[in-house]
Design goal:
By secondary structure, the protein is an alpha+beta fold. The chain has a single domain, classed as Alpha-Beta Plaits. It has 3 helices and 5 strands. Strands 1, 2, 3, 4 and 5 form a 5-stranded antiparallel sheet that branches. The longest helix is centred in the N-terminal third of the chain and has 13 residues. The two termini are about 15 Å apart. Belongs to the CutA family. One of its GO terms (molecular function) is copper ion binding.
């Protein structure tokens, strides 16, 4: 089964650096990095706002917990907002991401 992870980063460079490391460690198969977004939040009881760069990371569900833990370790925020969930995907996408944990290689027909 496929899984997705959503996480905002402070800037594009940080998202690219962490994404590249997760790719090298075979914890994800892809990271989509978006354009800057405006975030409004409450932190330590105070309202805040700032610009962040959102990212959607694609992985196999078997790697989900490990990928989330690794992002949390590498992320510069004290408490990064990282959410991940298993999801259904096309046969080809599932086969591609299944290779991350030694699943069947190649794209399903």
């Amino acid at each position: 089964m496929t899984a997705l992870i959503y996480c905002p980063f402070p800037d594009r460079e940080t998202a690219e650096r962490i994404g590249a490391q997760l790719l090298d460690e075979q914890l994800i198969g892809c990271i989509n990095i978006g354009g800057p977004i405006r975030s409004l939040f409450v932190w330590d009881g105070e309202k805040g706002e700032g610009e962040e760069v959102p990212a959607l990371l694609k992985t196999d569900a078997a790697k989900l917990r490990q990928a989330i833990d690794r992002i949390e370790h590498l992320h510069p925020y004290d408490t990064p907002a990282i959410v991940g969930w298993p999801c259904e995907a096309s046969a080809g996408t599932s086969a591609w991401l299944g290779q991350l944990h030694g699943g069947k290689s190649g794209v399903a027909s």
